[in-house]
Design goal:
Strand content: 5-15%
Largest sheet: 4 strands, mixed
Number of helices: 23
Number of strands: 16
Strand order of the largest sheet: 4-3-5-6
């Protein structure tokens, strides 16, 4: 194996979750060095089958450095181009635009290269950059096998049967798996590539607070302290990851999912500690999201390139560009921003901004109300441009065809976050309709769990097999568990909770969980939330009363992962005592009413100390 290819294989990485997926390559169907990138359509697959052409699927991202290198060096090679033109159906996929394919090929990083038979049975997958010499040799071998009739697809493994597993045991097993990845020396999970894995930061803080594992708070804060090295000190925005087992050799692309996770993790750190450094970092991160990444009409963009690409000139690599100050950068130009607006990403950013608004005081330059305004604008845009008549959400505005589980789960959590911080019942109503859509169109009624997307009648070969991705099922379970706890007092059947727990068991096969490695944060968080004792924090009062608003803001700042915060009219769930008040309740006990916002934290902590 050549040295460039070996280095590329070591550097290419899988995408994180919500947190978690990467962004748009060169336009599909563009003629590149004599061959054509086709779009992912039924016609492309039909042509491959009819003409007996080998399928080559390239999953790429606009911000991906090695994707650009492979375009310029490998796909531009005349011999590579000739082989692809004559013997292959070449299909290019934008990883951000197709969450189902991003999930399917995430283990191979970007660029991911999948080779399939003419009838779409998998032959092999390649991770990251492939140098021209090695790639030509591989393509020739594939063509020879096709001519000899020996190019065969792998047999798919049978789907594992869902286990009737104990959720506490599943949680402990998931945590034990993640613990093996924790780096005691550098912090973070994983040793070669240092990712800002926000779900694991959140899980560590939860374990410290709820399950009494104090060591995990120190580990979470150590990790976040190191993650600050990936935060652009000039514009804000967190770089995707760092290589060589350290935190100060970043890849400089700024991916929207990373931005949402970073903002959420920093807000949680401030809520836990009150340390101003987390507040300052969160405000810097917010400035990036509400600045170059926010669409003026509401909503948030997808990613920003690592390098500055200039027509007719060599690119300026991220390491050189981001070492400059603001004036130096602007004098050269701004790295490309992918201005696509996707539902899953916006759902994650809405949830993060709502947490920031709830937990972190604003600054004079940017009051905390800006976070809520931006979250509300993004939510309204999702309702106006992405919501379908059935209550689901398209990935991009106006999409026809598949609807994706990741979009539904992320938007659902965003809707609940908006309800939590505003008390506006319409956000909760939209979340309830969305949950009904998920059960109707995405749930595996026979075995439990959710499929990655709605049924695709045009899919062929391996792509006709519906997958149940673990992290997306974890995200969906978190949405449904919170929704159940928000509506339980209405006397509705516990459908959402039962569906969530069934989903967690449906994807609990140990071998599949092991394959996830450290990318298990959403699933582990869902298991934790399914097995903890929930605490209802209900503000009883009229939202038009400033005293109610003040009590609500005090409750929102409560550092309690078990807390479910809602607003109720006097006399609806709790008696009208003539003034706004807060009640904390478990399934067996309630606190006395708390009326004074200044005494709320101390009174709440006194009650919480009695909760198992």
């Amino acid at each position: 194996m050549s040295l460039p290819r070996l280095l590329a294989l070591l550097l290419a990485a899988a995408a994180p979750a919500c947190a978690t997926r990467p962004a748009s390559p060169a336009p599909a169907s563009a003629d590149v060095a004599g061959f054509t990138w086709h779009t992912w359509t039924s016609e492309s697959f039909a042509t491959a089958a009819r003409e007996r052409k080998i399928l080559l699927v390239n999953v790429a991202a606009s911000w991906c450095h090695w994707c650009h290198v492979m375009d310029h060096e490998t796909y531009a090679d005349p011999e590579v181009a000739a082989l692809l033109r004559d013997h292959f159906m070449t299909i290019r996929v934008d990883a951000d635009a197709r969450p189902d394919l991003a999930e399917r090929y995430a283990d191979w990083g970007w660029p991911a290269t999948a080779v399939l038979t003419s009838d779409a049975r998998p032959v092999l997958e390649l991770r990251g950059y492939q140098d021209p010499e090695s790639f030509v040799a591989l393509l020739r071998e594939l063509v020879a096998d096709q001519r000899a009739g020996t190019l065969e697809g792998r047999k798919a493994a049978p789907a594992p049967v869902a286990r009737d597993a104990d959720l506490v045991a599943l949680r402990q097993a998931a945590e034990a798996q993640l613990d093996r990845f924790y780096d005691e020396k550098q912090g973070g999970w994983g040793r070669k590539q240092k990712y800002p894995l926000a779900a694991l930061d959140e899980l560590a803080l939860l374990r410290a607070r709820v399950f009494g594992e104090a060591i995990w708070q120190a580990r979470a804060l150590t990790t976040l302290d190191n993650e600050l090295r990936l935060l652009d000190p000039v514009w804000g925005g967190m770089y995707q990851y760092s290589v060589a087992g350290v935190w100060d050799q970043p890849h400089f692309e700024k991916i929207g999912a990373i931005q949402a996770g970073a903002l959420e993790a920093l807000a949680l750190a401030y809520r836990r500690t009150g340390d101003a450094r987390w507040q300052q970092a969160a405000h810097l991160q917010r400035g990036y999201l509400l600045g170059p990444m926010q669409d003026p009409a509401g909503g948030f963009y997808t990613s920003q390139d690592a390098d500055l690409q200039r027509p007719g000139q060599p690119p300026i690599l991220g390491a050189d560009y981001y070492a400059l100050d603001d004036a130096g950068r602007r004098a050269l130009g701004i790295p490309r921003i992918d201005t696509a607006i996707y539902a899953d990403l916006n759902g994650c950013i809405i949830a993060a901004l709502c947490l920031l608004y709830a937990a972190v005081p604003g600054s004079d330059a940017a009051p905390d109300g800006l976070s809520l305004q931006a979250a509300l604008a993004a939510g309204e845009r999702l309702l106006a441009q992405h919501r379908t008549p059935a209550g689901g959400f398209t990935h991009a505005a106006g999409d026809a065809g598949l609807l994706h589980l990741r979009d539904q789960a992320a938007v659902g959590r965003g809707l609940l976050a908006l309800h939590r911080v505003t008390g506006d019942a319409r956000w909760l109503a939209h979340a309830q309709t969305l949950a009904e859509f998920m059960r109707s169109e995405l749930e595996d009624r026979e075995h439990g769990g959710f499929f990655a997307h709605t049924r695709d009648p045009e899919a062929v070969g391996v792509f006709a097999e519906r997958r149940k991705p673990i992290e997306e099922n974890g995200l969906a379970a978190r949405f449904l568990l919170e929704l159940h706890r928000q509506t339980d007092h209405l006397g509705t059947p516990p459908t959402d909770a039962a569906t969530a727990m069934r989903a967690l068991r449906a994807v609990s096969d140990p071998s599949l969980l092991a394959e996830q490695g450290r990318m298990l944060g959403q699933y582990a968080l869902a298991l934790a939330e399914a097995t903890l004792t929930p605490v209802d924090v209900t503000i009883v009062g009229d939202l038009g009363d400033p005293r109610t608003v003040t009590l609500h803001r005090a409750a929102l700042r409560l550092d309690e992962p078990r807390a479910l915060i809602s607003i109720s009219a006097p006399g609806q769930r709790y008696p009208d005592i003539g003034a706004p008040a807060v009640y904390l309740c478990t399934d067996t006990a309630c606190s006395t009413p708390i009326r004074d916002p200044e005494k709320f934290q101390a009174s709440a902590q006194k009650f919480l100390a009695t909760v198992p």
